[in-house]
Design goal:
Elements lengths: L15 H51 L9 H5 L32 H11 L24 E4 L15 E8 H11 L9 E5 L20 E7 L1
Antiparallel strand pairs: 1-2, 2-4, 3-4
Helix pairs in contact: 1-4
Protein backbone atom coordinates (compact mmCIF):
# COMPACT_ATOMS: atom_id res chain seq x y z
CA UNK A 1 0.00 0.00 0.00
CA UNK A 2 1.11 3.52 -0.72
CA UNK A 3 2.06 5.72 2.17
CA UNK A 4 -0.12 8.88 2.21
CA UNK A 5 1.46 10.38 5.28
CA UNK A 6 3.59 12.68 3.19
CA UNK A 7 0.56 14.45 1.67
CA UNK A 8 -0.02 16.51 4.84
CA UNK A 9 3.15 18.44 4.07
CA UNK A 10 1.54 19.83 0.89
CA UNK A 11 -1.95 20.64 2.29
CA UNK A 12 -2.72 24.35 2.80
CA UNK A 13 -4.48 25.89 5.81
CA UNK A 14 -5.06 29.13 7.69
CA UNK A 15 -2.56 30.23 10.25
CA UNK A 16 -3.68 31.88 13.49
CA UNK A 17 -2.45 35.22 12.16
CA UNK A 18 -4.54 34.89 8.99
CA UNK A 19 -7.63 33.95 10.99
CA UNK A 20 -7.06 36.92 13.29
CA UNK A 21 -6.78 39.26 10.28
CA UNK A 22 -10.05 37.91 8.83
CA UNK A 23 -11.84 38.38 12.16
CA UNK A 24 -10.55 41.96 12.41
CA UNK A 25 -11.80 42.72 8.88
CA UNK A 26 -15.22 41.21 9.67
CA UNK A 27 -15.37 43.25 12.87
CA UNK A 28 -14.52 46.43 10.97
CA UNK A 29 -17.20 45.71 8.37
CA UNK A 30 -19.85 45.06 11.02
CA UNK A 31 -18.78 48.17 12.92
CA UNK A 32 -18.99 50.22 9.74
CA UNK A 33 -22.49 48.95 8.96
CA UNK A 34 -23.70 49.67 12.49
CA UNK A 35 -22.07 53.10 12.45
CA UNK A 36 -23.73 53.81 9.10
CA UNK A 37 -27.12 52.81 10.46
CA UNK A 38 -26.62 55.08 13.46
CA UNK A 39 -25.68 57.99 11.20
CA UNK A 40 -28.83 57.41 9.13
CA UNK A 41 -31.03 57.37 12.25
CA UNK A 42 -29.34 60.50 13.61
CA UNK A 43 -30.00 62.30 10.33
CA UNK A 44 -33.67 61.26 10.47
CA UNK A 45 -33.97 62.51 14.03
CA UNK A 46 -32.50 65.85 12.99
CA UNK A 47 -34.81 66.06 9.98
CA UNK A 48 -37.87 65.20 12.08
CA UNK A 49 -36.93 67.79 14.70
CA UNK A 50 -36.50 70.36 11.93
CA UNK A 51 -39.92 69.41 10.52
CA UNK A 52 -41.54 70.08 13.90
CA UNK A 53 -39.74 73.39 14.35
CA UNK A 54 -40.43 74.38 10.75
CA UNK A 55 -44.15 73.63 11.08
CA UNK A 56 -44.33 75.73 14.24
CA UNK A 57 -42.40 78.59 12.64
CA UNK A 58 -44.69 78.51 9.60
CA UNK A 59 -47.84 78.49 11.75
CA UNK A 60 -46.79 81.49 13.83
CA UNK A 61 -45.54 83.37 10.79
CA UNK A 62 -49.01 82.81 9.33
CA UNK A 63 -50.57 84.26 12.49
CA UNK A 64 -48.32 87.32 12.16
CA UNK A 65 -49.47 87.86 8.57
CA UNK A 66 -53.18 87.05 8.74
CA UNK A 67 -54.05 87.34 12.42
CA UNK A 68 -55.53 83.84 12.64
CA UNK A 69 -54.11 80.36 13.06
CA UNK A 70 -53.82 78.40 9.78
CA UNK A 71 -56.73 76.01 9.39
CA UNK A 72 -58.95 78.16 11.60
CA UNK A 73 -58.57 81.17 9.29
CA UNK A 74 -61.67 82.27 7.42
CA UNK A 75 -64.36 82.70 6.37
CA UNK A 76 -64.03 80.92 3.03
CA UNK A 77 -65.06 84.00 1.03
CA UNK A 78 -62.32 86.09 2.64
CA UNK A 79 -59.69 83.43 1.96
CA UNK A 80 -60.69 82.86 -1.66
CA UNK A 81 -60.72 86.62 -2.30
CA UNK A 82 -56.93 86.58 -1.89
CA UNK A 83 -56.74 84.96 -5.31
CA UNK A 84 -53.92 82.83 -6.67
CA UNK A 85 -53.42 79.63 -4.66
CA UNK A 86 -56.36 80.59 -2.45
CA UNK A 87 -59.05 80.51 -5.16
CA UNK A 88 -60.58 77.14 -4.22
CA UNK A 89 -59.40 76.69 -0.62
CA UNK A 90 -61.92 76.39 2.21
CA UNK A 91 -61.70 78.46 5.39
CA UNK A 92 -62.15 77.49 9.02
CA UNK A 93 -64.75 78.70 11.51
CA UNK A 94 -62.56 81.35 13.21
CA UNK A 95 -63.32 80.18 16.75
CA UNK A 96 -59.70 80.17 17.88
CA UNK A 97 -59.48 76.36 18.03
CA UNK A 98 -57.76 74.12 15.49
CA UNK A 99 -60.55 71.57 15.32
CA UNK A 100 -59.97 67.87 14.82
CA UNK A 101 -60.23 64.80 17.02
CA UNK A 102 -57.29 62.63 18.01
CA UNK A 103 -58.50 60.00 15.53
CA UNK A 104 -58.39 62.63 12.76
CA UNK A 105 -54.76 63.58 13.43
CA UNK A 106 -53.53 61.21 10.71
CA UNK A 107 -56.90 60.54 9.04
CA UNK A 108 -58.56 63.94 8.57
CA UNK A 109 -61.52 64.60 6.32
CA UNK A 110 -61.11 67.23 3.62
CA UNK A 111 -62.91 70.03 5.49
CA UNK A 112 -61.56 69.44 8.99
CA UNK A 113 -59.35 72.28 10.25
CA UNK A 114 -56.44 69.96 11.12
CA UNK A 115 -56.18 69.19 7.38
CA UNK A 116 -56.97 72.74 6.24
CA UNK A 117 -53.96 73.95 8.20
CA UNK A 118 -51.58 72.35 5.71
CA UNK A 119 -53.47 73.86 2.77
CA UNK A 120 -53.37 77.31 4.33
CA UNK A 121 -49.64 77.08 5.05
CA UNK A 122 -48.91 75.98 1.47
CA UNK A 123 -51.15 78.60 -0.10
CA UNK A 124 -49.36 81.27 1.95
CA UNK A 125 -45.97 79.91 0.89
CA UNK A 126 -44.77 79.03 4.41
CA UNK A 127 -44.23 75.35 3.55
CA UNK A 128 -43.70 73.60 0.23
CA UNK A 129 -46.22 71.39 -1.54
CA UNK A 130 -49.46 71.53 -3.50
CA UNK A 131 -52.11 73.61 -1.65
CA UNK A 132 -54.87 71.82 -3.55
CA UNK A 133 -54.23 68.50 -1.80
CA UNK A 134 -56.97 67.77 0.74
CA UNK A 135 -57.66 65.38 3.63
CA UNK A 136 -55.03 62.71 4.24
CA UNK A 137 -53.34 63.66 0.96
CA UNK A 138 -52.54 67.07 2.45
CA UNK A 139 -50.48 65.57 5.28
CA UNK A 140 -46.70 65.63 4.80
CA UNK A 141 -44.58 62.51 5.25
CA UNK A 142 -42.14 62.38 8.14
CA UNK A 143 -38.55 61.06 7.83
CA UNK A 144 -39.55 57.69 9.36
CA UNK A 145 -42.14 56.90 6.68
CA UNK A 146 -45.18 57.92 8.73
CA UNK A 147 -47.31 61.05 8.52
CA UNK A 148 -47.16 64.51 10.09
CA UNK A 149 -50.47 65.72 11.48
CA UNK A 150 -51.84 68.27 13.92
CA UNK A 151 -54.46 68.10 16.66
CA UNK A 152 -55.90 70.14 19.50
CA UNK A 153 -57.30 67.00 21.18
CA UNK A 154 -56.05 66.17 24.66
CA UNK A 155 -53.11 63.76 24.72
CA UNK A 156 -53.78 61.89 27.95
CA UNK A 157 -51.21 60.21 30.19
CA UNK A 158 -52.55 57.52 32.48
CA UNK A 159 -53.58 58.92 35.85
CA UNK A 160 -52.55 62.51 35.15
CA UNK A 161 -53.60 65.63 33.27
CA UNK A 162 -53.46 65.59 29.51
CA UNK A 163 -51.51 67.86 27.18
CA UNK A 164 -53.80 70.62 25.84
CA UNK A 165 -53.32 73.07 22.99
CA UNK A 166 -52.35 72.70 19.34
CA UNK A 167 -49.81 69.96 18.74
CA UNK A 168 -47.79 68.78 15.76
CA UNK A 169 -47.61 64.98 15.67
CA UNK A 170 -45.73 62.23 13.83
CA UNK A 171 -46.65 58.58 13.38
CA UNK A 172 -44.49 55.47 13.00
CA UNK A 173 -41.51 56.85 14.96
CA UNK A 174 -39.03 54.19 16.21
CA UNK A 175 -38.49 54.09 19.97
CA UNK A 176 -34.82 55.04 19.77
CA UNK A 177 -35.71 58.08 17.65
CA UNK A 178 -38.58 59.05 19.96
CA UNK A 179 -36.15 58.98 22.91
CA UNK A 180 -33.68 61.19 21.07
CA UNK A 181 -36.35 63.70 19.99
CA UNK A 182 -37.96 63.84 23.44
CA UNK A 183 -34.55 64.42 25.00
CA UNK A 184 -33.68 67.18 22.53
CA UNK A 185 -37.04 68.97 22.67
CA UNK A 186 -38.26 68.22 26.18
CA UNK A 187 -37.59 66.09 29.26
CA UNK A 188 -37.10 62.57 27.84
CA UNK A 189 -40.29 61.29 29.54
CA UNK A 190 -43.09 60.10 27.19
CA UNK A 191 -45.85 61.07 29.65
CA UNK A 192 -44.76 64.55 30.81
CA UNK A 193 -43.82 67.94 29.40
CA UNK A 194 -44.61 69.34 25.97
CA UNK A 195 -43.55 66.14 24.17
CA UNK A 196 -45.82 63.08 24.56
CA UNK A 197 -45.61 59.62 23.01
CA UNK A 198 -48.29 56.99 22.39
CA UNK A 199 -47.36 53.35 21.77
CA UNK A 200 -48.10 52.56 18.14
CA UNK A 201 -48.01 49.70 15.66
CA UNK A 202 -45.27 49.33 13.05
CA UNK A 203 -46.47 50.44 9.63
CA UNK A 204 -49.64 52.04 11.02
CA UNK A 205 -50.52 55.68 11.65
CA UNK A 206 -51.65 55.21 15.25
CA UNK A 207 -53.71 58.11 16.58
CA UNK A 208 -52.25 59.86 19.65
CA UNK A 209 -53.94 58.85 22.89
CA UNK A 210 -52.86 57.42 26.22
CA UNK A 211 -49.16 58.11 26.64
CA UNK A 212 -46.59 55.39 27.20
CA UNK A 213 -45.20 54.85 30.72
CA UNK A 214 -41.69 54.51 29.33
CA UNK A 215 -39.82 54.08 26.06
CA UNK A 216 -38.80 50.76 24.51
CA UNK A 217 -36.26 51.19 21.71
CA UNK A 218 -37.65 48.49 19.41
CA UNK A 219 -41.28 49.66 19.67
CA UNK A 220 -43.02 52.25 17.45
CA UNK A 221 -44.65 55.44 18.68
CA UNK A 222 -46.86 58.33 17.63
CA UNK A 223 -45.35 61.48 19.08
CA UNK A 224 -46.88 64.94 19.67
CA UNK A 225 -45.24 68.25 20.54
CA UNK A 226 -47.21 71.26 21.72
CA UNK A 227 -46.74 74.28 19.50
Amino acid sequence: MKNFSGMSKNQGGFTLIEIAIVLVIIGLLIGGVLQGQQLIENSRVRAATNDINGTMAGAYSYVDRYGRFPGDDGPTATIQARGGNWATIVGGNQNGILEGTAAQTFAPTAAIESALMWQHLRAAGFISGDPLLTGVQALPRNPFGGLIGVTSALVQPAGAGGLPGNKVCMSNVPGSAAIAMDTRLDDGNPATGRFRSTLGVAGANTAPGATAANYVENEMYSICYRM
